[in-house]
């Protein structure tokens, strides 16, 4: 793996310590910041590939830091939150965070999320790849065709396809209800999450082997959905 | 159209309530006869034998055999309760053992002679009261009554036979009996039996035939008893007709008001009224209007009036004593207020010509009221008693007053003697009159009358010529004397009345003031002890009695009296408890255990009886005075309200403390959880990092253990924090309409590790509706249930998740075929800090299910546990379906 640069904005020393060890074992270069202010400076000067941001910072609200950052950068951000900050988590995702980790979290969990974000970052540059496959499904984005691996055609309505396409475009990212509704249905539908649920159910029935226990179109309870490639 | 007449709902309701009350009570059967010897006891015993042979638990409480052989024979084979031996006037007496009977609690008990009067040391004065208590405790009773023992017929029978019986039974006891069986025997046969010695022993029989058992008497008594039974049957039929709505027109119930006066023969008036009331099947009231004049009646007369009122009460009347100036106005007002249409008054005999009788005055004032005059007892005249001032006579020393009166008259004479040269004799009369006024004002009626006479005598002797002689020179002085005496007497009377009125007013004022002060003091009390102090003060200063306060304990029984200096502590808790249980007064001056020197008054507060006030007055008669009883009743209700207030203050206080401690606990938990979480994150992360290093196996194991323990602690902290948040009400549900399969799917994903090596089956009915819930919290419920299922089963076990719609709710269940939980703990598993198996090595503190319950209940749902046969546990929660929004999505074009 290439040398990636990760900015870690976290005030707890012990957490910084193990996250650094874990990331360095993946071959990342880790830059630590204890405050939000410091973190923003590091993010601006070091041009990192990923930012890990704790929502409970001593000097500034983590959400503010995220908003500032999104003003000038699309660098992937993973937020760390405690369970009591459920609302903050949604806000963070709506504000542009790509993923979240709930404390306490293990190293395996952390690295999985980090890898996913770094890969997505890499892939996003690679727009030319029009074919994506997951499970027994193959999607040809150029031809807007969905087939099984055995070549069987799967019929999707246009909205179903737009939803699927948006999910596939953001692999590994938690997409909130608001975001999906805004992007697929349009800004006037952001307050009708049940539309989304109906369509998501239909997609699962058509694409998942066991719709009750989906493997790719995952639910993030209370937050939204995530496509796990 | 309503063709069929319908029963009046109020009447029906009354009847149903009466039947309900009776269903819990025992049943009373009365064997009723015209006189002794008709075979009531025999009939009762025969009936008892029959029931006993049918297997009923029959016991003989008391049976008077009067030495009759036939009766004695019937007592064989029946269980007879031992009698209680009591001392009466130093003679041993055998009485019915009420306590023994209540303890034995048979289905049916035989209690002979309902009209019997108990010895003083028994609980009740009358046996019919014993029977009432037996019935109240659900025991059926057989008893016997003779017609002359019925209260309302008592004087009629007395008039016929010339023999007055003092042992009586109130008519309501007889009328409320479930069954009355008339035991009838023609007079000839009765006399025959008497002669054969079957009723009395021969020498008694001789006397009895002469006195009571005359044939004429027997015929009259027989007719009375037959008629009385027929009246009852009539009443039964009326009741039947009322429920079956045979009649179409319902007359309003008539009701009577009987006025009890101070005159003789009031008892007879009351009895007549009782009979009238029974005939018209109406309720009746008896009142005594106490005017200032009547307040001066001697004690014996007042007690007689109160006894008459008591009699009326026993006969079923509502009674009242009304203090007032104008008896007529008050009577009319009372009748109007209580909707009483007929007023019964005893006929006045010696009414002065210039004064209308009471009946006429009522008739004039309220022409719409029926006034019924009934005869008083013609023979029974009470000797005219001297009126005296009962209330105050004790505190005025009489002889010094008379002495002072004489002294003042002498002083006036001495003073006036030197003035006679300058003053006309008429003016000297004025000086004497002035003295009479003074005496009347200061010393009362008697001395004033004395002063009136002395003034005339002294005036005649010392002033009217010829002086120092009673002879008068001029006849016109006789007129002077006459006028002087009359004026003096009138003044004396007027002044004394005025003085009396003033004292009555003052007394009333001081009583009101005392009550006001007691109320004020009671309103400031915060502890039962302070109430006891107020009681004590009130009793000492106002009542002149010793008082004890017994409060209800936590177990619903009375506690010992509150012990203060000078309060009454030597009380009979048995009587107090009785009074408390029955809500009635007991002890001194009442019908119940009157031999006790202490009066027990239950403290009735609005919600329930809160305790008993025990009062030991200095004089027993004190309780008979209506003003004092009223004062005491008012005071008792003040005390009761104060006790209740304190009780509720305590309840509120406890609730507040509970709330406070809960809040404190929650905030402590919240802080603790938060501060624990950060180091735990570090612990988990660091141990994870360490385990990635190339370490020897045993070290790797240790690191893994550290990691697992830290994760466990993390979930414990999460649970504690969630519980605290849920309980403190800080959680606002983020409810959204969504399908349950989504949350089941995400919960399964999250619980993958906990369910390793278990086979999970999902049984979801198709077309489940959307439900409105908070996805995060419901996922938590499912995760906890799945985690539990993983924890309490072994690898290889099956776990089944089911979701189905049942009526208006969605039921989601998680079942396993593991060992299950112990029987009987279906409810307790949901308690905080309760675990399926207390001594198991499985980790956890037992908060998971408590959290589940809190979450589900916040969603207005329900969660419960079941055993699965043959083995396993099932946890089910249901969520209300509600009305989902329109789920049809806008039409779209296909690709």
3D architecture notes:
The complex is a heterodimer of chains A (229) and B (895). Chain A is built from eight helices and eleven strands. Chain A has helices at residues 13-25, 36-46, 62-72, 86-94, 107-124, 158-169, 177-185, 193-207; strands spanning 4-9, 28-33, 50-54, 77-81, 99-102, 131-134, 137-140, 145-148, 174-176, 217-220, 224-227. Chain A starts with a strand and ends with a strand. The model of chain A has no long low-confidence stretch (mean pLDDT 85). The model of chain B is unreliable at 245-252 and 380-396 (pLDDT under 50).
What are the main properties of this structure?
heterodimer, A: 229 residues, alpha/beta, five-stranded parallel β-sheet, three-stranded antiparallel β-sheet, B: 895 residues, six-stranded parallel β-sheet, 24 strands, extended
Task: State the helicity of chain B in percent bands.
Answer: 40-55%
Q: How are the strands ordered across the major sheet of chain A?
A: 2-1-3-4-5
* Helical coverage of chain A, percent range: 40-55%
- Tally of extended strands of chain A? 11
Number of separate strands of chain B: 24
**Can you summarize the main beta sheet of chain A?**
5 strands, parallel
Name the beta content range of chain B.
Answer: 5-15%
| Secondary structure tally, helices of chain B | 26
Termini separation of chain A comes to: 19 Å
Which two protein chains have the largest interface (Cβ within 8 Å of the partner's Cβ), and how many residues from each?
A: A-B, 44 and 51 residues
How would you classify the quaternary structure? heterodimer
Total DSSP helices of chain A: 8
Radius of gyration of chain B using CA atoms only:
43 Å
**Sheet with most strands: strand arrangement of chain B:** 3-2-6-7-1-8
Helix and strand element order of chain A:
EHEHEHEHEHEEEHEHHEE
User: Are there runs of chain A of 5+ residues with pLDDT below 50, and where?
Assistant: none
Query: Which strand-content bin applies to the residues of chain A?
Result: 15-25%
Q: Whole-Å distance between the termini of chain B?
A: 69 Å
Coarse shape of chain A = globular
Contiguous uncertain segments of 5+ residues of chain B: 245-252, 380-396
Largest sheet of chain B: 6 strands, parallel
């Amino acid at each position: 793996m290439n040398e990636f640069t990760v900015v870690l904005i976290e005030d707890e020393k012990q957490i910084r310590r193990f996250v650094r060890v874990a990331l360095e074992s993946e071959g990342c270069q880790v830059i630590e910041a204890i405050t939000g202010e410091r973190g923003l400076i590091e993010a601006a000067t070091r041009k990192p590939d990923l930012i890990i941001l704790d929502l409970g910072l001593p000097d500034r609200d983590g959400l503010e830091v995220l908003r500032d950052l999104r003003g000038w950068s699309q660098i992937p951000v993973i937020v760390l939150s405690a369970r009591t900050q459920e609302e903050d988590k949604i806000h963070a995702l709506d504000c542009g965070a790509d993923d979240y980790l709930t404390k306490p979290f293990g190293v395996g969990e952390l690295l999985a999320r980090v890898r996913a974000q770094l890969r997505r970052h890499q892939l996003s540059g690679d727009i030319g790849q029009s074919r994506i496959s997951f499970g027994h499904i193959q999607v040809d984005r150029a031809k807007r065709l969905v087939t099984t691996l055995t070549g069987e055609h799967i019929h999707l309505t246009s909205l179903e396809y737009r939803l699927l396409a948006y999910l596939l475009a953001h692999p590994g990212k938690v997409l909130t209800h608001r975001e999906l509704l805004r992007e697929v249905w349009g800004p006037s539908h952001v307050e009708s999450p049940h539309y989304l649920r109906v369509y998501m159910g239909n997609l699962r029935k058509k694409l998942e082997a066991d719709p009750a226990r989906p493997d790719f179109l995952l639910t993030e309870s209370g937050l939204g959905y995530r496509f796990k490639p | 159209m309503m063709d069929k007449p319908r029963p009046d709902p109020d009447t029906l309701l009354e009847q149903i309530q009466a039947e309900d009350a009776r269903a819990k009570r025992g049943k009373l059967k009365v064997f009723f006869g015209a006189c002794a010897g008709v075979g009531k006891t025999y009939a009762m015993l025969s009936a008892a034998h029959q029931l006993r042979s049918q297997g009923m638990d029959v016991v003989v409480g008391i049976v008077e055999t009067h030495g009759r052989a036939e009766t004695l024979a019937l007592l064989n084979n029946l269980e007879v309760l031992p009698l209680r031996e009591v001392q009466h006037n130093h003679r041993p007496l055998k009485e019915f053992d009420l306590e023994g009977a209540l303890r034995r609690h048979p289905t049916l008990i035989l209690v002979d002679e309902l009209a019997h009067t108990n010895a003083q040391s028994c609980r009740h004065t009358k046996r019919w009261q014993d029977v009432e208590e037996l019935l109240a405790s659900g025991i059926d009773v057989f008893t016997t009554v003779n017609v002359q023992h019925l209260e309302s017929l008592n004087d009629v029978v007395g008039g016929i036979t010339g023999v007055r019986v003092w042992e009586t039974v109130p008519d309501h006891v007889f009328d409320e009996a479930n069954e009355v069986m008339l035991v009838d025997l023609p007079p000839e046969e009765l006399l025959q039996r008497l002669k054969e010695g079957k009723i009395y022993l021969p020498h008694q029989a001789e006397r009895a035939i002469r006195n009571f058992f005359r044939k004429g008497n027997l015929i009259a008594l027989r007719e009375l008893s037959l008629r009385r039974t027929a009246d009852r049957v009539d009443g039964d039929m009326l009741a039947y007709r009322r429920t079956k709505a045979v009649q179409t027109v319902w007359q309003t119930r008539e009701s009577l008001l009987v006025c009890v006066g101070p005159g003789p023969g009031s008892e007879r008036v009351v009895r007549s009224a009782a009979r009238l009331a029974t005939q018209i099947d109406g309720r009746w009231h008896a009142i005594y209007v106490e005017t200032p004049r009547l307040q001066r009646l001697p004690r014996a007369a007042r007690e007689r009036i109160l006894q008459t009122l008591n009699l009326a009460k026993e006969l079923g009347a509502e009674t009242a004593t009304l203090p007032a100036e104008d008896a007529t106005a008050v009577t009319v007002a009372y009748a109007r207020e209580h909707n009483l249409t007929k007023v019964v008054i005893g006929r006045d005999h010696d009414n002065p010509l210039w004064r209308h009788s009471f009946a006429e005055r009522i008739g004039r004032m309220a022409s719409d009221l029926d006034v019924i005059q009934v005869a008083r007892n013609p023979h029974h005249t009470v000797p005219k008693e001297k009126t005296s001032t009962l209330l105050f006579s004790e505190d005025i020393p009489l002889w010094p007053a008379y002495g002072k009166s004489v002294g003042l008259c002498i002083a006036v004479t001495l003073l006036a003697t030197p003035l006679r040269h300058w003053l006309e004799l008429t003016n000297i009369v004025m000086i004497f009159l002035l003295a009479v006024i003074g005496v009347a004002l200061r010393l009362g009626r008697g001395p004033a009358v004395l002063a009136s006479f002395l003034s005339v005598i002294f005036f005649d002797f010392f002033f009217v010529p010829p002086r120092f002689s009673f002879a008068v020179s001029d006849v016109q002085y006789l007129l002077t004397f006459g006028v002087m005496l009359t004026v003096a007497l009138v003044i004396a009377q007027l002044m004394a009345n005025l003085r009396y009125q003033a004292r009555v007013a003052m007394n009333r004022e001081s009583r009101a003031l005392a009550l006001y002060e007691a109320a004020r003091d009671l309103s400031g009390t915060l502890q039962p002890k302070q109430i006891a102090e107020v009681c004590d003060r009130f009793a000492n200063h106002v009542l002149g009695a010793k008082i004890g306060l017994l409060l209800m304990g936590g177990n619903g029984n009375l506690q010992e009296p509150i012990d203060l200096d000078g309060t009454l502590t030597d009380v009979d808790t048995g009587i107090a408890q009785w009074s408390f249980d029955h809500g009635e007064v007991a002890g001194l001056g009442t019908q119940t255990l009157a031999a006790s020197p202490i009066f027990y008054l239950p403290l009735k507060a609005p919600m329930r009886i809160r305790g008993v006030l025990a009062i030991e007055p200095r004089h027993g008669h004190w309780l008979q005075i209506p003003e004092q009883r009223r004062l005491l009743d008012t005071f008792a209700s003040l005390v009761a309200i104060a006790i209740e207030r304190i009780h509720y203050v305590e309840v509120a206080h406890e609730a507040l403390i509970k709330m406070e401690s809960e809040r404190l606990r929650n905030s402590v938990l919240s802080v603790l959880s938060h501060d624990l979480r950060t180091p735990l994150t570090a612990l988990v992360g660091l141990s994870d990092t360490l385990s990635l290093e190339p370490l020897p196996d045993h070290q790797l194991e240790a690191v893994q253990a550290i990691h697992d323990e830290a994760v466990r602690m993390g979930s414990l902290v999460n649970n504690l924090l969630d519980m605290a948040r849920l309980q403190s009400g800080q959680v606002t549900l983020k409810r959204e309409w969504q399908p349950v399969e989504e949350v089941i799917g995400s919960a399964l994903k999250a619980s993958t590790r906990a369910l390793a090596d278990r086979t999970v089956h999902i049984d979801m009915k198709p077309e489940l509706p959307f439900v409105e819930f908070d996805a995060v919290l419901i996922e938590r419920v499912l995760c906890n249930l799945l985690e539990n299922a993983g924890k309490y089963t072994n690898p290889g076990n099956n776990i089944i998740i089911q979701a189905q719609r049942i009526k208006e709710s969605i039921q989601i269940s998680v079942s396993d075929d593991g060992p299950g939980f112990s029987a009987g703990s279906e409810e307790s598993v949901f308690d905080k800090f309760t675990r399926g198996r207390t001594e198991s090595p499985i980790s956890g503190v037992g908060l998971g299910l408590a959290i589940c319950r809190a979450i589900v209940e916040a969603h207005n749902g329900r969660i419960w546990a079941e055993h699965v046969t043959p083995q396993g546990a099932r946890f089910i929660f249901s969520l209300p379906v509600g009305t989902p929004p329109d789920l049809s999505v806008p039409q779209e074009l296909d690709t």
